[in-house]
Design goal:
Strand content: 15-25%
Structural class: alpha+beta
Radius of gyration: 18 Å
Largest sheet: 6 strands, antiparallel
Number of helices: 6
């Protein structure tokens, strides 16, 4: 609720500059989402198996609805998964921005210490994330993949250490 009020106040202050208004709106929505207890995918292994991305993407793409866009390995340093926006989504963005960044043309989840997170970019739709979760479980096993509220890894590591250290 507080974040929505902040966005509203910033909209009033910058209403003459449309580009700044949109960027600030996206930024505050990101912060609001990160501060709530939204669930994310966590993988409990350090490495994917041989051809892991290929197997995960193949499972996803054979189980997605026919009219849905395909998933692929994200073309970013961190790795992860991305789904290209469809033509309608790209047209809407093209009307708002004169130059689209490649990260704006996909919905994506990037690796961050075992978590798949959107990092403020457009994340996957709920149904896409569910199918990605199923794909990861299919390839890695149910004991290696969880869907739970995100916690930063510093907190997670502290919980793993024996008490009294």
């Amino acid at each position: 609720m507080i974040q929505v009020k902040i966005v509203y106040l910033i909209f009033i202050e910058y209403k003459t500059n449309v580009n700044i208004k949109i960027e600030l709106h996206i930024f505050y929505i990101y912060i609001e989402n990160q501060t709530t207890n939204m669930s994310s995918i966590q993988v409990l292994t350090d490495t994917l198996p041989k051809d892991g991305y290929k197997l995960i993407c193949e499972y996803y793409n054979t189980h997605k609805p026919e009219d849905a866009m395909f998933i692929r390995k994200a073309g970013v340093y961190e790795g992860g998964f991305e789904i290209p926006l469809n033509k309608d989504e790209l047209n809407i963005l093209s009307q708002r921005y004169s130059n689209l960044d490649p990260n704006q043309m996909v919905r994506q989840l990037r690796w961050n210490m075992g978590w798949l997170l959107s990092f403020g970019y457009a994340g996957l739709h709920e149904s896409e994330e569910k199918l990605l979760l199923d794909s990861l479980i299919h390839v890695l096993g149910k004991d290696k993949v969880v869907y739970k509220p995100y916690t930063n890894n510093e907190t997670w590591w502290e919980e793993q250490l024996p008490r009294g250290r």
